[in-house]
From TrEMBL:
Localization annotation: Membrane
One GO cellular component, as annotated: membrane
Name of protein: Major facilitator superfamily associated domain-containing protein
Lipid bilayer topology: Multi-pass membrane protein
Organism: Saprolegnia parasitica (strain CBS 223.65)
This protein's record includes keyword Cytoplasm: no
Upper lineage: Eukaryota, Sar, Stramenopiles, Oomycota, Saprolegniomycetes
């Protein structure tokens, strides 16, 4: 029996056989995801100890940091086209892995050896009470004398731009390497029989999440002194945290050069490639999956800007506690992805997502409202809500990667995988922009939460209920998702074409990307952070009698009438 007949009978999408996970090429590929997981684990782990505590970011500023550092993932499709169409030295994937890791390594070295700004609240003020510290973080320095005020760096949040820009460029670098590796994973996954297709992806992505546990542990244990909101009498500097990423970058470069196996390929004709890609966009299966992924995740990712502030002002979560629960969440996420590859490859996707989403809404509503109304403000109770989220997050992530494998054709693996996952990645910053805009009309800033008044509790309740309602509304779009791989393949073959839908994908994608970038960048700078489109309050910000954000009318009166 021929190879083609064999892979036709067992449901594989291309010949070649299942990849041996202990082979040299598999280990080289896994090395890429270990490094991705390390960076992917550290940068988000710094949000609470470094940016919210050390730099005293507001909730909307912290959300903007996360959004702009992750915005590079919304450009994956362009990197996918790059790796598909423009081989370097005859190779489509390996050179881009090396290039991406070199970019990331340069940025990491710059962050490691540049002097980091002083903390918002210096260690000499560690004897102050929790309530006084909360007042300081809200901008009220009236309790301090002139000597003590020297240890408050009121400019801390405005000095973070350099580090955020380098973190963003670093993310672009390792994202380029990740896109090239993802394309190879699609090629290998399509060699698997239909009954076990997705198992390799589960191992690969489970490894990625498992490796991110290490930097999260280091961030929590070694960044738990007073400056970071903790109570240890020692800590490492942010520079040291960035420096720990040098080794995994070097490891990934070695794996790409000497372990990853790739055959030389010819450069495709770009016009012909784009024609095939456009034809693919016209397929019903593509635009339907894209529509589901975007709409569902926009609503599912709708959070409340009050939550980061609740963590510090009400639940008094210390970096160590935050990191422990973050590590547990990540470990459960990795375990859930491994479990999907072992036992969940043939689950009904619709049923799994529906049950998981409803469970998340129930858990979040119970915990967050209990903390808001002071039923309990235990940091462990507050952070415990993260753990049940691991399973639905793993399911959504796995389904996204499974869909990409089923849709991709030979030669466009990078672009198709990037398109399907980019839609999800773009939904998160777009959702962040929208919920920051909505929440800017409520009094849920750090200063408001520091008062802990009944009116503020109601304001927080409103934004939490809006967030929970949006998550449940995401289930409306489940009908667009095929229930399993076989149904998706049927839709690809018989679903037909729609040119208007293809244009809708392009226009909608471009608009959402531009909107998310502009709003996220505006939130980073004091001169534009007050605008509602950036997630600000819509009110002018005044320092020392000078408006640093907002408009001044002809009479000299501060106004924000132009903010929207």
């Amino acid at each position: 029996m021929s190879t083609v007949s064999e892979h036709s009978l067992n449901g594989a999408l291309r010949p070649g056989g299942v990849l041996n996970i202990l082979s040299r090429e598999a280990i080289g590929l896994l090395g890429q995801y270990v490094a991705v997981g390390m960076i992917y684990g550290l940068l988000p782990a710094l949000v609470y100890p470094v940016y919210i505590q050390y730099m005293n970011f507001n909730g909307y500023q912290a959300a903007s940091y996360t959004s702009i550092v992750n915005i590079c993932w919304s450009f994956k499709i362009f990197m996918g086209v790059l790796t598909d169409c423009f081989p370097l030295f005859g190779f489509k994937r390996k050179p881009y892995m090396v290039l991406g890791w070199c970019i990331a390594l340069i940025c990491i070295c710059c962050m490691t050896f540049s002097t980091f700004p002083a903390p918002y609240v210096g260690r000499p003020l560690s004897s102050l009470s929790h309530d006084t510290i909360a007042m300081l973080r809200g901008g009220n320095l009236s309790e301090l004398n002139a000597t003590a005020r020297v240890h408050v760096n009121v400019q801390a949040s405005s000095q973070a731009g350099y580090w955020i820009i380098l973190s963003t460029i670093c993310s672009f670098g390792y994202m380029l390497a990740d896109v090239a590796a993802d394309a190879m994973v699609v090629e290998y996954a399509q060699r698997e029989p239909i009954l076990v297709r997705g198992r390799l992806q589960s191992i690969i992505y489970g490894t990625r999440f498992a490796s991110s546990v290490v930097p999260q542990l280091i961030a929590g244990i070694c960044m738990n002194s007073f400056e970071y909101g903790g109570n240890f009498d020692w800590s490492i500097t942010p520079n040291a945290a960035f420096g720990m990423l040098v080794v995994p970058c070097l490891l990934a470069i070695y794996c790409a050069l000497f372990l990853v196996v790739e055959e030389r390929d010819v450069r495709p004709v770009f016009s012909a490639y784009m024609g095939r890609l456009w034809r693919l966009l016209e397929l019903r299966v593509v635009w339907q999956i894209c529509l589901f992924r975007f709409c569902s995740n926009v609503f599912f990712s709708f959070e409340a800007t009050a939550i980061p502030s609740m963590k510090s002002a009400w639940a008094n979560v210390q970096p160590l506690t935050n990191s422990i629960f973050g590590v547990l969440n990540t470990a459960l996420m990795a375990a859930a992805i491994f479990a999907c590859g072992q036992w969940g490859l043939n689950l009904n996707w619709r049923h799994a997502i529906a049950v998981a989403t409803i469970a998340i809404a129930a858990i979040d509503s119970t915990v967050l409202l209990s903390v808001t109304w002071h039923v309990t403000r235990s940091p462990y109770f507050f952070m415990g809500r993260l753990l049940p989220k691991a399973l639905p997050s793993a399911i959504r992530f796995a389904i996204s990667s499974f869909c990409a494998v089923e849709i991709a054709d030979i030669g466009n693996e990078g672009a198709v995988n990037s398109l399907i996952t980019t839609i999800v990645n773009l939904a998160t910053p777009f959702s962040t922009v929208v919920y920051k805009l909505v929440d800017s009309y409520f009094d849920v800033s750090v200063a408001n939460l520091a008062t802990d008044s009944v009116s503020v509790r109601w304001q927080v309740t409103y934004v939490l209920l809006i967030s929970l309602g949006m998550k449940l509304f995401s289930l409306v779009f489940l009908g667009l998702l095929p229930p399993q791989k076989a149904a998706l393949q049927w839709l690809k073959k018989r679903g037909g074409y729609n040119r208007g839908a293809a244009w809708g994908i392009v226009i909608g994608f471009s608009t959402a990307l531009l909107f998310a970038i502009v709003s996220s960048v505006m939130a980073l700078f004091p001169s534009t952070a007050c605008y509602r489109i950036a997630g600000g309050s819509g009110e002018a910000i005044v320092r020392n009698g000078v408006a640093i954000c907002g408009w001044v009318d002809s009479t000299g009166t501060l106004t924000t009438s132009h903010n929207d």
